[in-house]
Design goal:
The complex is a heterodimer of chains A (280) and B (278). With 280 residues, chain A is mostly helical. Chain A contains 14 helices and 2 strands; from the N terminus they run αααββααααααααααα. The longest helix of chain A is centred in the first third of the chain and has 32 residues, at 60-91. The two termini of chain A are 37 Å apart. Chain B is mainly α and 278 residues long. The chains are: A mainly alpha (280), B mainly alpha (278).
Chain lengths: 280, 278
């Protein structure tokens, strides 16, 4: 079979491969190369070593974006997973309406980041207007506004994954623990959570990388205001490219650092939680 | 586990209240889309009154002045076109690289998995320049860009499925004289239907809502997507027309809600399947 299949390489592989080269491989390689050059457009790049990387690290806006992003990610990973887990646990009990409630919680996930940002801008500004304040005057408002928005968006998605995980735990396990006299807390701690580790791995991975890569919601809710203090890494990279003339090389260097950071964190997280998974 | 009756009613009631709060932002936007613009930012939580109610004026503004319906059409064309092309091309690609064992095919698989973890900002600038040079700055060209940048996840999910199905049926078909193309469409494709649905839903959710890729790639004078129009309304100089924004938000959310309610079962399955494999 393999031999006759091989001759069909152009039909099966070439279209996707060509698009993959245009849409990913070539831009990726060129991106790495340009991070070591000074350029305005792609064609007039001159090599300048690691100068872009030095300028990127020394840029106080980049550092502040990093701190904001890290704090935001820590808060949202904890909040989203905790709340999604509680909701999943509740909605796998047998009371009326659980299916409708699942539908409701998942809905915001399908709405685009830009649309979400403007929906919540209206709500937050409406509340803050009573105290003669607006969302864009304070870093604290921007931070917690973004946190609420992202929780609202992602709890439903993680809830679905936790529900799938909870339903995969054999009923005998909890039943047996129940007969052995384990209370609710003990059943949760020694039966449910260890068996749910694969779902926890996936959800922490997703919330972690989503947090670090957040762009649309950041742009539409605060756009980095006030004074770029709510600017996250992805938005900072965008603004370095398109908002500061002569900084394109630095923008590309920041993008490479950002890429390494996201990949590194993802791998680290997978290693940490994978070791805690149990075999069923 | 059975719950007692009182606890069960309490559960339903609690979640009923939470659910009402949960969807309330959407209803507040809907209410405000019928108010005149000055009253939206001043008192968004008040119901429209005789003085503030302006019927469909905001919608008229959004459609006539901000060309919202054009954006809906372009977004629809880009999303449907890209998803169909991605489904067809990547499933063929995934079947081939899984069935033909070799250094090249395993390398291609690894590249696809690798591309899944690369954030868009890494290729943002170079991808938009490449697309520009190759004249891919139209909705049709964008389909190719999406096939390239979205291939990773799709190939990964299709390959995972192909690995789980026995090769015997395909081999039997080939021995009976079926060409690889015929084997793929008559034997493999029907078996992969659940994966097509999962991948289709994940890619639709991504492309429909995507902002930055079309914003940087498309010729903005001619083509705009829904997200781009809404972002432009806020970003342009002068006073922001809150009324028209509200109308656009409502019109952006309604198709999503309809799509969701119609295919909810598949969406939730698709998400669970995609997550387990991811």
């Amino acid at each position: 079979m393999e031999r006759s299949l091989k001759r069909y390489f152009p039909i099966f592989v070439l279209p996707t491969l060509a698009a993959f080269i245009i849409g990913f491989i070539w831009p990726f390689i060129q991106g790495i190369y340009l991070s070591f050059t000074e350029f305005r457009t792609v064609n007039n790049a001159t090599f300048n070593g690691i100068e872009n990387y030095i300028r990127a690290i020394k840029d106080p806006e980049f550092t502040s974006a990093f701190i904001f992003t890290a704090a935001f990610t820590v808060v949202t990973v904890v909040l989203i997973n905790l709340l999604a887990f509680i909701v999943a646990l509740a909605l796998t009990q047998s009371f009326k309406g659980t299916n409708i409630f699942r539908t409701v919680f998942f809905l915001p996930n399908l709405i685009g980041g830009i649309v979400l940002g403007y929906i919540w801008q209206l709500i937050f500004n409406g509340i803050l207007a009573r105290f003669d304040l607006t969302l864009k005057i304070s870093t604290t408002f921007g931070f917690w506004g973004l946190v609420i928005l992202i929780c609202w968006q992602q709890i439903g998605y993680m809830m679905i994954i936790y529900i799938a995980g909870l339903q995969a735990i054999p009923g005998d396990y909890t039943e047996a623990a129940h007969i052995d006299g384990a209370n609710v807390w003990q059943r949760l701690r020694h039966v449910i959570i260890p068996n749910l580790m694969p779902s926890i791995t996936i959800c922490t991975f997703l919330t972690l990388t989503n947090g670090f890569k957040l762009f649309d919601q950041n742009l539409s809710l605060t756009a980095g205001e006030p004074m770029k203090s709510t600017e996250m890494l992805a938005l900072n990279i965008y603004n370095t490219f398109y908002g500061r003339v002569g900084w394109q090389g630095v923008g590309q260097a920041k993008a490479v650092l950002f890429f390494l950071l996201v990949v590194g964190l993802g791998l680290l997280q997978l290693r940490v939680t994978r070791t805690r998974e149990v075999q069923q | 586990m059975k719950m007692n009756k009182a606890l069960s009613i309490l559960g339903t009631l609690t979640f009923l209240i939470i659910s009402v709060f949960y969807v309330s932002p959407l209803f507040i936007v809907l209410l405000n889309s019928f108010k005149n613009k000055t009253n939206i930012s001043l008192s968004p939580f008040k119901l429209p009154t005789q003085e503030t109610y302006i019927a469909f004026e905001n919608y008229k503004m959004a459609i006539d002045h901000y060309k919202f319906l054009d954006a809906v059409v372009w977004t629809l064309i880009i999303t449907v076109g890209s998803v169909l092309v991605i489904l067809l091309c990547t499933s063929m690609f995934a079947w081939f690289i899984t069935r033909v064992k070799g250094k090249v095919t395993s390398f291609l698989y690894l590249l696809c998995v690798f591309s899944m973890v690369v954030p868009f900002q890494m290729v943002m600038f170079t991808l938009s320049k490449t697309a520009d040079q190759l004249k891919l700055n139209t909705p049709w060209g964008l389909v190719i860009v999406y096939l390239g940048f979205g291939a990773g996840l799709a190939v990964f999910m299709f390959s995972g499925f192909v690995k789980s199905i026995p090769i015997d049926i395909e081999e039997a078909a080939m021995i009976d004289g079926s060409t690889p193309l015929k084997t793929f469409f008559a034997v493999v494709l029907p078996i992969m239907k659940p994966t097509y649905i999962s991948v289709g839903i994940l890619e639709t959710m991504w492309i429909w809502n995507d902002f930055l890729l079309p914003y940087l790639t498309l010729d903005r004078n001619k083509y705009n997507t829904i997200s781009m129009v809404i972002q432009n309304m806020q970003g342009s100089y002068g006073r922001v027309d809150m009324g028209a924004i509200m109308a656009c938000l409502v019109m952006a959310v309604i198709p999503v809600v309809i799509f969701y309610l119609a295919s909810q079962k598949y969406i939730i399955k698709g998400v669970a399947a995609g997550a387990v494999k991811g």
